[in-house]
Amino acid sequence: MSQNIFDNETFFNEYRKLREGKSYNDLLEQPAMQALLPGLTGKRVLDIGCGFGHNCLDFINRGASRVMGIDLSQKMLSAAQKEASHPGITYRRMDMAGLSQLVSEGERFDLIYSSLAFHYAEDFPRLMAGCFSLLHPGGVLLWSQEHPIVTATLDCAGHFNQDEQGNPCSYTFSDYAKSGRRVGTWFVEGVVNYHRPMGEILTTLAHAGFVLTDAVEPTPSPQAIKQRPDLAKEFIKPAFLIIRAKKPENPLSGTEKGK
Ligand SMILES: C[S@@+](CC[C@H](N)C(=O)[O-])C[C@H]1O[C@@H](n2cnc3c(N)ncnc32)[C@H](O)[C@@H]1O
To answer: Structure pTM?
Structure first.
């Protein structure tokens, strides 16, 4: 069963505070994600792990006709309903492990978007298959996740090293090729996520039938570094991986997919 850490009171309050400041999301991840968005006029969008719903509202403002935001956390969804509601948006409590429910209900989308939630998915082939089934031919899948260098180390003890002046100069990590569950501390102990090496991520995407269009490891702009000088260490080790892929107009059958 998927862990629902965002409904932990302490975790939720700390995460909320983090997002209120000028976060890595605002300065690094979101600009790169927005640059990869397709035109949304009249389109139907699914946001997986929609959190506070800010992106769902942005999709409506960009002309989307209908947006569905799904999330496992009741606290996140309650905030979304308060802060980012719109008649064109439906919020629904759902585990991303259960996308087949939406498939069987006949839901289909032009864009499936997910910001920083896919590293919580245990069964990645199942997630990719669900996304593929839910997209119209020609539809786009766009997601960001923690970079595999960040998720790699088994005891979650990957860290920056400092030079004699105290500036970050390198990054230590290990266990990169050991795919699987990681348990670490982020605000609270026992936070579970799943590490997958880059090759596994891209191969699973291809085997589901998708065609990769972009793989981005975002770096900060000079303006972003002015606002948060610590972002300069992104040039040593990226925090995020962003993938954009397309469902072909004429998808291959199961046996023809790159297997
Ligand atoms: C880091 S937050 C990002 C929230 C939002 N996408 C954003 O960028 O502001 C990750 C979100 O994924 C949700 N999440 C984690 N595991 C999930 C799962 N198995 N199914 C659905 N949502 C999940 C969490 O509850 C949380 O809202």
So the answer is: 0.97
